[in-house]
Amino acid sequence: QPRCAQHNHSGRIGLVDAIKWSCNIFFYDVGRRTTSAVYDEYAQRLGLGIATGVEVGEGTGHLTSTSDANYTKSLEIQAAIGQGNTVVTPVQMATYAATLANKGTRYKTHLVKALLDTNTGEVVQEFSPVVEDQIPDDSGAFELVQQGMIGVSQTLSTLANYPYTIACKTGTPQRAESYTNAAGVKKQYCNTMMIAYGPAEDPQIAIGIVIEYGSAGAKAGQLVADIFNAYFFEQSNTLAAEQEG
After folding, report:
1. Residue 232: exposed, middle, or buried by beta-carbon count in 10 A (0-12, 13-18, 19+)?
2. How far, in Å, CA of 236 to CA of 81, rounded?
3. Which partner from 68, 93, 143, 238 sits 20 to 30 angstroms from 79, CA to CA?
């Protein structure tokens, strides 16, 4: 039975709280109303289920659609929370996080910043940012999503009091394998997934994390903090937030 642990089955809930508390029922209903034809289009425009542009061979994954051999309306609703037949890659998740941070502007993803002459060290070619897509937003949707993602970080002890404001979202995809716990209850193995970016007010870094068999998505909170620690310390040799400018 679907449930929303924070809000049960009663009362209204808005987008910000639905993101903050991972309210499946909210997103089931959004998926039912919009259909996969709509949310798949936006998922791709945000960087999921398509080639990102990295300079190595990459899988493009798959988004659940009505053309899938096992398609049912139930599957379409499950896909609205990222389940169903949905398959995405870690680099797509990082691209997705960066696109959210950029308020709908998706850039081509690169592993290589520049090519250097191995003899002289001279820059032979440098890659400039290339905009792949721009989602117009005249309703403040990306700002609301950011508020919800900041809310998620406030529920995680490792991120709630971080020196910089971090926006993040957890994910707990179920695997096909199952196990029986000590109480004799059958459970599904899960992966840990999380996207994050920050500082939310002026994003500098976006992250996509996948830990196979990692259990709940919130388990990645400490890893997000460690990555931000490494990044910000390298920039300033301190974790103290600096004044603007």
Report:
1. buried
2. 38
3. 143
Tell me how crowded residue 244 is: count the other CB atoms within 10 A of its CB. 6
Three-state DSSP class for residue 1: coil
The residue among 212, 177, 176, 207 whose CA lies nearest residue 192 is: 212
Rounded Cα distance, 172 and 193, in Å: 6
Two tokens at 44?
A: 């791709």
Judge whether 123 and 116 are in contact, CB under 8 Å.
yes
Instruction: Report the half-sphere exposure of 80 (CA within 13 A, side-chain side).
Output: 24
∠ CA 133-134-139, nearest 5°, is 150
**For 200-227, how does the pLDDT look when each residue is reduced to its tens digit (9 = 90+)?**
999 999 999 999 988 776 788 899 999 9
Q: What pLDDT, in 10s, does the model give residues 47-103?
A: 999 999 998 889 999 999 999 999 998 898 999 998 889 999 999 999 999 999 999
Peptide linkage before 129 cis (omega within 30 of 0): no
Tokens of 190: 């899960």
Distances (CA, A) of 111 to 20, 108, 127: 31, 10, 10
Beta strands in the chain (DSSP E): 105-107, 114-116, 123-126, 131-134, 167-171, 174-180, 186-190, 192-198, 205-211
